[in-house]
C-alpha cells in the first residue's frame, strides 16, 4: 500500500498533463469550428444578398411589364370607346 501511495503523485501528475493536453486540443478544435461557422455565415450572407438583389430585379421587371400592359389596355379601352361613340 505504501508503494501505491508513493506512485500516486506521479499518476496524478500524468493525468493532469493529459488533461491539459486535452484542454488545448479541445480549445483548438473550438477555434476551428468557430472559424468554419464564421465562414459559413459569410457565405450564407453573400447568397442572401444575391437572392435579395435578384428578387428586387424580378419585382422591378414585373412592375415595368405591368405598367406597359396597363398602357396597352388603356389604349385598347380608348379605341373601343371611340368605336362605340361612332
Brief rundown of the structure:
By secondary structure, this protein is mainly α. The protein contains one helix and no strands.
Layout of secondary structure:
Blueprint: H1 2-85
Task: Characterize the structure shown.
It is a single chain. With 86 residues, the chain is mostly helical. Helix content is 98%, strand content 0%. It has 1 helix and no strands. The radius of gyration is 37 Å and the shape is rod-shaped.
Q: Give the helix tally.
A: 1
Any low-confidence stretches, pLDDT <50, length ≥5?
none
The helical percent reads: over 70%
Category by helix and strand content: mainly alpha
Distance between the termini: 122 Å
Beta percentage is: under 5%
Keywords:
single chain, 86 residues, 1 helix
Amino acid at each position: 500500500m505504501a508503494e501505491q501511495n508513493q506512485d500516486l503523485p506521479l499518476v496524478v501528475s500524468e493525468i493532469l498533463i493529459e488533461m491539459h493536453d486535452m484542454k488545448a486540443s479541445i480549445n483548438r478544435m473550438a477555434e476551428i469550428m468557430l472559424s468554419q461557422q464564421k465562414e459559413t455565415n459569410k457565405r450564407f450572407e453573400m447568397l442572401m444578398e444575391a437572392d435579395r438583389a435578384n428578387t428586387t430585379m424580378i419585382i422591378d421587371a414585373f412592375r415595368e411589364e405591368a405598367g406597359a400592359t396597363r398602357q396597352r389596355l388603356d389604349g385598347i379601352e380608348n379605341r373601343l370607346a371611340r368605336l362605340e361613340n361612332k
